[in-house]
Design a protein that fits this description.
- Chain A is globular and about 60 Å long.
- Chain A has a five-stranded mixed β-sheet.
- Chain A has 287 residues and is of the alpha/beta class.
- Chain A is built from nine helices and five strands.
- Chain A starts with a helix and ends in a 27-residue tail after the last helix.
- By secondary structure, chain C is an alpha/beta fold.
- Chain C folds into five domains: 123 residues, 3-Layer(aba) Sandwich (Rossmann fold); 177 residues, FAD/NAD(P)-binding domain (3-Layer(bba) Sandwich); 80 residues, no CATH class; 162 residues, 3-Layer(bba) Sandwich (FAD/NAD(P)-binding domain); 67 residues, Alpha-Beta Plaits (2-Layer Sandwich), CATH 3.30.70.3270.
- Helices cover 26% and strands 26% of the residues of chain C.
- Chain C contains 16 helices and 34 strands.
- In chain C, the strands form twelve sheets. Chain C has a five-stranded parallel β-sheet.
- Chain C is elongated and about 100 Å long.
- Classes of the chains: A alpha/beta (287), B alpha/beta (151), C alpha/beta (660), D alpha/beta (297).
- Chain B: One of its GO terms (molecular function) is iron-sulfur cluster binding.
């Protein structure tokens, strides 16, 4: 990240934030703020104009902010949210799933040239796909080849292993899972009012923390979000036990691309999820 | 894992009431014979089968799971099996990706008049599962009998 | 704790011969919750059913499992039986021990073991069955018929005669459709107007029928018994209440427009009656071509001459919304536009190459030539006429792949009319096959040949003009030689295609079309006049090419279906439909997209967010439309929508019971 | 810019002599720059594809590859209908069938991507630019002369390969000829077969094919026939006298290439474009109708 450009962008962000808060277009702004550690930032809720200066913009702004709007679905005033490429796709995801109203949000577009996060390596949308105001100049996107090569590289390598090896790998991973549901809480595609795992449905999802139940939970969540995942990598980042969750959900996306044509979630806000529609020309393997 | 001496494969088949279930009844009427290992669960349409039922079936101890419905275009509810096709093409690959042998989960279109096809499918699937042996993946039972300790 | 009664049926020897029924009853008896487990020789018989009723009383059972033949056989029988007891008819599960166990296995010991697990699955499922009650939806006993051709007219008359109110909607200024354009009808050659105009008059005179011409269906919502239909009454600029149809305005109107009723032969005025025997027999003004209305001139002469001042140039379209219980689609057909497909026949450049309907107007006494067959180019009577069949039909490359069924017969009819009206004329009919599938059809075809029509087996390759003759070159496959006929006039019997604009009507009604845009019937053989949507029926050529006898038969069939719907005050709907748990529903609409019957709608309900009252959207299932397929349940991540009778809990209980 | 790669083909220096002369005259007049492909080879015409499909595709492909290798990005203009048709087949194969493209490039040992288009002379003359250029160069008018435009079979068929807009009633040549003041008649045998090489080996059976073309043209008031292909021109021109004699007909329809009409209208002398070289006398009719612009007929 060349620093001079980003520092200028941070200043412009603060100045814009102050103006928005002063003239009342937004109730409050969700951005990133400093924490005790220099190499970490945390979500910041700036409500008063003077708090705008606490907003930061550096390579450690990695938290996804879009899903906080779910906690305030019926705001009096618009909610300002700083959106990088992935956050803007998360907003599209939530709007497409009818969970938040686009009019309730004021999106501050932040062109992002990559953060201290492994997922930024193959990022295909550095510039926000939807915003109300753009801070600074858009950055140069990854080339088409680089982004698409990077996208499923991990999955293709994993598929080369034999079925038993793959089972052993996943069994080990799900042994570690402590069912804290952090992956569900951060995921913009997981927007159900009451998650099936929290409900008292005996035959459906057991509560015991053993390998079989964790496997069923992991696979079910992968299947639930598979056709709507925006590949932001947050689930993997927040998992306390370090499970490679993206490697599970991206498998679905890879299959969808192979079977139903290229497909990227959250880029256009209208695109219906693949499992919500059908096509007469779909391949037929079950004859 | 010692193979139990008189192990019999346990196969569950979610069958759509208007086509495959009718086909099974027709196979019965014609006294066609097929192995006893397959148990049919009657559902109104193959699109009623939630992919999560498959995971539960494996977890509870099934060795093979099938989803059978009408041929695309013949669905009594017009578009039901188009959704089934998409859902289970993806779920089948996800299961294989997680190490389940491809033959343990199969989906088939069997119409109400294809009694012979029903019998042949059931015989073929039972033979394939018997050859694969008992399924130990995803099994709750494995964990209840000591699980990681006896690995 | 549930008190389940289990009855294992011998079914004579069908089950007992391969399954040890006593052992099954005994094993199942051990399951907690099963308080009564017996076998019975013939459970579906009267004594068998009585035994169950007595057991329910004696052991105060609250749910029943019967191990017997396939539920598809006796599920309804046993449900009717339970109606007579205190148990809800849906607290019942049937294990298929005959077709899917006894008859298909050979090893008695294994068959018995399987029977036990099948019954155990049913017992587990019945454990979470809940009493279900059929719901009722009101039926508005008023029918809507879309399309005023012979199909729509016949359906409307039949429904009205059965004592129900009918609204007949026709977008043209008069009803009659294509049939009233014809001169004669095969095979009896009786005059088409003589048999259709009386029916048209009956329609306008019938107390139960409201006739709405120059109207189109704007929007349709709702479901069987309660269709909310908005109809657009297009502006007619003539007040039909006062107008007596004297026709003075028509004579004075200066503009001349190609007459679409006469298929472009001859002209009509801007203010016009579609044809002399039009019903209603009152003119309308064609806004595009009326000089005053399209602003090209001052005119307004019709308003001046009209004795009763019926002309009103300020007339606007009006929208009327009414509720109907059932809808009959009778939108009819059109002829394919061959000029865009057949460059070999001159693609319309030669005036004397005409379509079947154009010939009907030439030979029709009320047509532009008062029944004299005069060829359009120079009004001369043609001596040699060529008729070409299957133009656009049975031709995948250029036209439609299907056969249009009626052209062989009306081709022979045209030949007959020419030979009769023009003495000394010659008629050559190029055909691939002659299809005469109806009563008296083959005899009519033979009589036409005896009258002197020459049938040449082969397709016409090219028609071109030389001098004032039309040269038809083709091949006679029977003698294996190319053939050339010098004709004065050529009639092309073109393919039938769905009426213009059928796509909009079909999408408004939410029904479906087949590949060629014919309206899709529920089942080609067993339910030809119904659609997938309850309460919407079909009649006539909108469902596919057919002749008048079949059309009228279908129209009456559709009418009876409508009367079937209206025969009950309320309509009982199946209780095994989806239901939404509004507490869990987050309004994501994934279920809405999967419903084949668009039975799921979103509705606004009150909710709380923290301490504030808010409104939020949840899904709701329309019990009239939902057919209980369950596609929505698999689409719902939280399991908020569930299918009664096959709930997630019930199915998973069966899975668990199998794997014990 | 009216600049094209140019593939003359074998008939330009033989049966198509008048076609070639009139093309050169008109091209020079309207500034049409035709760059002949160096080292071009025979297109295979009707002989190649009866023998072997790959040969039939590779022969024309080599010419197209040569044109492409000069990477001037020029489309290829082809006067003769047969060469045009064969080139179109190769272009279609290379653009739609990966496997065939590999085989072709292997045979001609040259890369060929099918970047540029293959155009007949009717295509290039019916462009707005060419029409405007011709209109500005007219010095004579042929008004009153009724002609029947004959397209032959290969220029418009098969539709999937040539992309011609109307295989039954094309109008390109009619529009071009109308520029000279001549009046194209509406007739029905524009694209019917002229018998091509059958006129050589089975003249007796093939003669009626020519007869019906001439008859329909005359019946619809044409005084001459205009073609855009050396072979059709030769068949109709050379064999008309034979038909008059053998089938007792009285046809008097000189046969011109459409570029000859353009040349005459642009002031060409009879010798310059070889009007005397026709089999069926064609000079009198042209002399009768070719009037200085402004002279009344």
């Amino acid at each position: 990240m060349n620093d001079t450009l980003e520092i200028k962008r941070e200043a412009q962000l603060r100045e814009t934030a102050r103006r928005l808060l002063e003239d009342g277009t937004v109730g409050y702004i969700i951005g990133w703020g400093t924490t005790r550690f220099e190499d970490k930032t945390a979500p910041l809720f700036a409500a008063k104009p003077e708090e705008a200066d606490r907003l930061v913009w550096n390579e450690y702004c990695i938290n996804s902010l879009a899903k906080y709007s779910l906690d305030d679905k019926y705001p009096e005033k618009k909610i300002g949210i700083c959106v990088r490429g992935c956050d803007s796709r998360a907003v599209n995801r939530l709007v497409n799933d009818k969970q938040i109203e686009r009019e309730n949000l004021f999106l501050i577009g932040m062109p992002c040239s990559g953060k201290e996060n492994s997922v930024c390596e193959g990022c295909s949308h550095k510039n926000p796909v939807v915003y109300d105001i753009l801070i600074g100049e858009p950055v140069e996107e990854n080339t088409e080849e680089k982004a698409s090569a990077e996208r499923f590289r991990e999955i293709e390598e994993f598929e080369k292993m034999s079925p038993d090896e793959r089972y052993e790998f996943w069994a080990k991973q799900y042994d570690k899972c402590i069912r804290c549901y952090a992956c569900r809480n951060i995921c913009p595609a997981c927007s159900c009012k009451e998650c099936y795992a929290d409900q008292y449905m005996v035959g459906w999802q057991g509560k015991q923390n053993n390998r079989a139940e964790s496997q069923v939970y992991g696979l079910t969540r992968a299947y639930h979000v598979g056709d709507r995942c925006i590949e932001c990598g947050e689930c993997e980042r927040v998992c306390p036990m370090g499970l490679p969750i993206m490697r599970q959900t991206k498998k679905m996306l890879k299959d969808i691309n192979d079977l139903f044509g290229n497909y990227e979630c959250g880029v256009e806000s209208e695109r219906a999820p693949v499992l919500g529609e059908y096509d007469l020309t779909d391949r037929d393997e079950f004859m | 894992m010692s193979v139990e001496k008189n192990w019999e494969p346990k196969i569950i088949a979610f069958t759509c009431n208007w086509c495959t279930y009718t086909g099974a009844d027709l196979a019965g009427l014609n006294r066609m014979k097929y192995p006893e290992n397959v148990h049919l669960v009657r559902v109104p349409c193959s699109s009623r089968v939630n992919p999560q039922f498959i995971l539960r079936a494996f977890q509870k101890g099934c060795d093979g799971v099938m989803v059978c419905g009408c041929h695309p275009g013949d669905c009594h509810y017009a578009t039901g099996n188009y959704f089934t096709r998409r859902r289970f093409m993806l779920m089948k690959r996800l299961l294989e990706y997680n190490g389940i042998d491809p033959q343990r989960f199969q989906a088939r279109w069997i119409s109400g008049s294809e009694a012979a096809k029903f019998r042949d499918t059931m015989t073929q699937v039972t033979a394939q599962i018997r050859e694969l042996g008992p399924n130990s993946k995803f099994q709750e039972k494995w964990y209840q009998e000591g699980g990681p300790e006896n690995e | 704790m549930s008190r389940t009664g289990v009855i294992i049926c011998h079914c004579g020897t069908n089950i007992a011969s391969m399954v040890d029924v006593e052992k099954v009853a005994e094993e199942i008896g051990k399951i907690p919750g099963v308080v009564y487990s017996v076998t019975n020789k013939y459970t579906c018989s009267e004594p068998g059913q009585q035994m169950i009723k007595d057991a329910i009383e004696e052991h105060s059972l609250d749910r029943i499992v019967i191990g017997a033949c396939t539920p598809r056989m006796h599920e309804t029988t046993f449900r009717k039986m339970l109606k007579g007891t205190k148990i809800n008819p849906y607290m019942l599960e049937i294990a298929n021990l005959r077709e899917q166990c006894a008859w298909v296995h050979t090893d008695k010991e294994k068959a018995t073991e399987k029977a036990i697990s099948l019954v155990r699955m049913s017992v587990a499922k019945v454990g979470s069955n809940k009493p279900l009650f059929t719901s009722f939806i009101p039926i508005h006993k008023k029918a809507l018929v879309i399309g005023g051709g012979i199909a729509g007219i016949q359906a409307a008359l039949d429904i009205a005669d059965a004592g129900h109110e009918v609204t007949l909607v026709e977008r043209e200024p008069s009803i009659g459709g294509k049939m009233v354009m014809l001169d004669k009808t095969f095979p009896t050659l009786d005059c088409s107007a003589c048999i259709s105009t009386p029916k048209m008059v009956d329609v306008s005179a019938h107390p139960n029928i409201t006739l709405k011409t120059s109207c189109e269906v704007e929007a349709v919502t709702g479901y069987v018994g309660n269709f909310e239909v908005t109809i657009r009454q297009k502006a007619r600029y003539v007040n039909h209440d006062i107008c007596t149809g004297c026709g003075l305005c028509e004579t004075k109107c200066p503009s001349k427009i190609s007459d679409e009723f006469n298929q472009g032969i001859g002209e009509r005025k801007a203010i016009y009656k579609l044809f002399p025997q039009a019903v209603p027999a009152k003119p309308v003004i064609d806004a595009q071509n009326c000089r005053k209305l399209n602003g090209s001139a001052k005119c307004g002469v019709c308003q001046i001459v009209c004795p009763l001042q019926c002309i009103d140039f300020e007339d606007k379209d009006q929208l009327i919304t009414e509720t109907y219980g059932a809808i009959v689609v009778a939108t009819g057909y059109e002829l394919i536009d061959w000029t865009k497909l057949y460059g070999e026949y001159g693609s319309g450049r030669y005036a004397d190459v005409i379509s079947g309907l154009q010939f009907e107007r030439l030979v029709n006494a009320s047509g532009p030539t008062e029944g004299h067959i005069l060829r359009p180019s120079d009004q001369k009577e043609p001596k040699d006429v060529v008729i070409v069949k299957c133009v656009g039909s049975r031709d995948e490359k250029k036209g439609k792949s299907y056969c249009s069924r009626a052209c062989c017969m009306y081709g022979a009819k045209h030949a007959h009319q020419i030979l009769e009206k023009i003495p000394g004329s010659n008629v050559y009919i190029f055909y691939m096959d002659v299809r005469t599938p109806g009563k008296g059809y083959e005899e009519f075809y033979n009589r036409t040949r005896e009258d002197g029509a020459t049938y040449i087996r082969g397709r016409v390759a090219k028609i071109y003009k030389e001098g004032d003759k039309l040269i038809c070159t083709g091949e006679d496959t029977l003698i294996g030689k190319p053939v050339t006929v010098k004709a004065d006039m050529v009639i092309l019997e073109t393919a039938m295609v769905p009426a213009r604009g059928v796509e909009e009507i079909v999408s408004k009604l939410g029904i479906s079309m087949d590949g060629d845009h014919w309206v899709q019937e529920a089942h080609p053989k067993l339910r030809p006049v119904e659609t997938q949507t309850a309460g919407i029926f079909l009649a006539g050529t909108c469902q596919g090419p057919k002749d008048i006898p079949d059309t009228v038969a279908q129209a009456s069939a559709a009418a009876v279906k409508v009367c079937g719907v209206f025969s009950k005050e309320q309509m009982e709907t199946s209780p095994m439909i989806s239901r939404v748990n509004e507490e869990k529903c987050c309004g994501c609409e994934f279920c809405v997209k999967c419903c084949p019957y668009s039975a799921i709608a979103m509705k606004e309900i009150d909710g709380r967010e923290g301490n504030r009252k808010i409104k939020r959207m949840v899904a709701t299932v329309n019990s009239g439309l939902c057919q209980g397929c369950g596609a929505c349940t698999a689409a719902c991540r939280t399991g908020a929508i569930d299918l009664l009778g096959y709930t997630n809990d019930q199915i998973l209980k069966e899975v668990d019971a199998l794997c014990l | 810019m009216l600049r094209y790669a140019y593939y003359p083909g074998c008939s330009m220096d033989s049966t198509g002599a008048t076609y070639k002369k009139s093309i050169e005259f008109v091209a020079e007049k309207i500034g049409l720059d035709l760059r002949e492909i160096k080292d071009w080879n025979c297109c295979g015409a009707t002989a190649a594809h009866t023998k072997d499909e790959m040969m039939a595709l590779a022969l024309p492909a080599r010419n197209l590859a040569l044109a492409e290798s000069e990477d001037l990005g020029l489309d290829i203009a082809i006067p003769c209908a047969a060469c045009y048709s064969r080139m179109k087949y190769s272009l279609h194969a290379v653009r739609t069938d990966e496997e065939k493209k590999e085989q072709i490039q292997e045979i001609i040992e040259m890369p060929y991507e099918g970047k540029n288009d293959v155009l007949s002379f009717l295509d290039i003359f019916s462009t707005e630019e060419a029409m405007e250029a011709c209109r500005s160069k007219m010095v004579r008018t042929l008004s009153g002369l009724k002609v029947a435009c004959y397209y032959g079979c290969l220029l418009s068929r098969p539709h999937e390969v040539t992309g011609g807009e109307d295989t039954e009633n094309p109008m390109d040549m009619d529009r071009i000829v109308a520029l000279t003041g001549a009046e194209p008649v509406d007739w029905s045998f524009k694209t019917e077969c002229c018998g091509a090489s059958h006129q050589v080996d089975v003249p007796k059976e093939a003669r009626p094919l020519l007869d019906r073309i001439l008859r329909n043209a005359q019946a619809n008031g044409a005084q001459a026939i205009v073609t855009a292909c050396p072979l059709c021109n030769m068949n109709l021109d050379m064999r008309q006298a034979e038909i008059n004699e053998k089938m007792e007909k009285k046809y008097n329809l000189p046969v011109y290439q459409f570029t000859e009409l353009l040349a005459v209208a642009m002031g060409a002398g009879a010798k310059e474009i070889g009007l005397h070289k026709h089999f069926f006398p064609a000079f009198e009719l042209m002399k009768k109708y070719a009037k200085r612009a402004g002279e009344n007929g």
